[in-house]
Amino acid sequence: MTSDGLITVLVADDQALVRAGLVALVGGQPDLTVVAEAANGAEAVARTRETAPDIVLMDIRMPVMDGLEATRRIVGDATGRGPRVVVLTTFDLDEYIYDALCAGACGFLLKHAPPEELLLGVRAAAHGGALLSPTVTRPLIEAFTGRRRMPIRPPAALARLTAREREVFDLVAGGRSNTEIARALCIAETTVKTHLGHALEKLGLRDRVHAVVYAYENGLIRPGEGR
């Protein structure tokens, strides 16, 4: 963020009209500012390195370099708390979304979503939040991990979690919100956040979206299970 608290955003989309609309929408908010634009993935990577935005709004399907490779490079470049990439797509089950999440994107937003939803997503990402609600996350992950062979044994890293951390992690992976988890376990929401933070750190995961991906990839939850 800037010294006066503004969330800095880079907009990457190969369609000039779409890009201009996003720039106008984001730039018109008192707490957001657009620091750069890009018409393809290569430009997005270069401009991200130059401007170090808080958020990169990344279209997936672009010329020269697609958004998937651009996301991988931006996240790979980051040291410490680097830019958070939010994928933009026209379809809610775009085949590339799963790969974008694995590449390091913190979530995705639909281009045809209401403006207030997109702005809410940008702000949530800037403050470390997840952009996929359980109703969107599970069908998405199920659609693509369901095609992959699940491992027979859970990863050894899970043994590093305390009993409570594993309990919280499993509930997050099942699509529960912090409020629902706190209610189910009879603990405070702040305690849920603490346990989840510890679990994510021990497993080397970025956020709760990637916790869901991890759970499905490692057979902790099978497609169709969850809430």
Automatic annotation (TrEMBL):
PROSITE patterns reported for this sequence: HTH_LUXR_1, HTH_LUXR_2, RESPONSE_REGULATORY
Highest taxon of the lineage: Bacteria
Signal peptide: none
Modified residues (4-aspartylphosphate): 59
Family annotation (InterPro entries): CheY-like_superfamily, NreC/VraR/RcsB-like_REC, Sig_transdc_resp-reg_C-effctor, Sig_transdc_resp-reg_receiver, Tscrpt_reg_LuxR_C, WalR-like
Boundaries of every HTH luxR-type domain copy: 154-219
Keywords annotated in UniProt: DNA-binding, Phosphoprotein, Transcription, Transcription regulation
Record's keyword annotation contains Phosphoprotein: yes
Annotated protein name in UniProt: Response regulator transcription factor
Upper lineage: Bacteria, Bacillati, Actinomycetota, Actinomycetes, Streptosporangiales
